[in-house]
Specification:
Layout (H helix, E strand, L loop, with lengths): L4 E5 L4 H12 L3 E6 L2 H13 L4 E5 L5 H15 L4 E4 L5 E3 L7 H29 L2 E6 L3 H4 L5 H20 L5 E6 L12 E3 L4 H11 L4 H14 L3 E2 L3 H12 L1 H16 L16
Parallel strand pairs: 1-2, 1-4, 2-3, 4-6, 5-8, 6-7, 7-9
Helix pairs in contact: 1-8, 3-4, 4-6, 9-10
Length: about 280
């Protein structure tokens, strides 16, 4: 058993819970922060029943003071921390650029991007003081592929990738590691926070998540392996990994392929029509 310590934002459900269970199984002490206290306490009950030293803290990542309080509680209880997983996120509002309100933009950026910034800002001084530490920042394949009608979400996740690439070099001299995870569709509860200006789009995206062969537990396994090996990129979906490489090295081919995929996703199904015999002029 490792006895190491991990803090996970958005750890009460979905991918965050899968990560918490993975690390608990590996002998880590686990702290989860979430805005959903009911789910958070239920997850902690599961972890402690398995023998894990675990506790829940109500934490809204849009509030720097919440993260500061979490840090203080962790130091008081465990005298330090080994790993922070900045996982909390929302789906935001899908739709054309001229139909998504700026208030929706501000919300998704505040949670998905600035929430990760706040997590890194809060715990970097502790990691520097300790002389070690590790961040896992949860981004998305959406931040690499940038499909239309999802601009606010894409930008928020691309920002997480850019932040992670920056900190990879900035924090290396302090023995602080970074991994960034970019999953595509998988079975999760992200759709609960999804809104759309396009009729039926949320339902189509939800169906894609439900049909995915990749689970939250699979992604948690990949994240654990990446941290153990110090790998920066966590790209769990093979198809999206190939698309990303295609975009980097054959951008024109990527554009053609993306147009076909986007047409299937964003074009609403046509209603069935009944053929009738032509009526002769009379």
């Amino acid at each position: 058993m490792s006895g190491k310590r991990v803090f996970i934002t958005g750890g009460a459900s979905g991918l965050g819970k899968a990560i918490a269970c993975k690390y608990a199984g590996a002998g880590y002490r686990v702290c989860i922060g979430d805005v959903n206290e009911k789910r958070g306490l239920a997850t902690i009950a599961e972890l402690t029943a398995s023998g894990c030293d675990a506790f829940f803290v109500h934490c809204n990542t849009t509030r720097l003071e919440d993260l500061t309080q979490v840090k203080e509680q962790i130091i008081s209880r465990w005298q330090g921390l080994d790993l922070v997983v900045n996982n909390a996120g929302i789906a935001g509002t899908a739709g054309p650029i001229d139909q998504v309100a700026l208030d929706d933009w501000q919300q998704v950026l505040d949670v998905n991007l600035l929430g990760v910034v706040r997590g890194c800002q809060t715990f970097t001084p502790l990691f520097k003081q300790q002389g070690f530490g590790y961040f896992v920042n949860i981004a998305s394949a959406a931040g690499l592929m940038n499909a239309p009608q999802m601009s606010s979400y894409n930008v928020s996740k691309a920002g997480v990738i850019a932040l992670s690439e920056t900190l990879k070099h900035e924090l290396a001299p302090f023995n602080i590691g970074i991994s960034v995870a970019c999953p595509a569709f998988f079975k999760t509860n992200l759709a609960e926070s999804m809104k759309s200006t396009i009729d039926g789009l949320s339902q189509r995206l939800s169906r894609l998540m439900a049909r995915s062969a990749i689970s939250a537990e699979d992604i948690a396994d990949d994240i654990f392996t990446a941290v153990e090996s110090g790998s920066f990129w966590v790209l769990p979906h093979k198809a999206e990994r190939r698309l990303w490489l295609l975009k980097r090295y054959l951008p024109f081919a990527f554009d053609v392929l993306m147009k076909k995929k986007i047409a299937k996703l964003f074009t609403a199904p046509r209603p069935a029509t009944t053929k009738t015999a032509a009526t002769p002029p009379g």
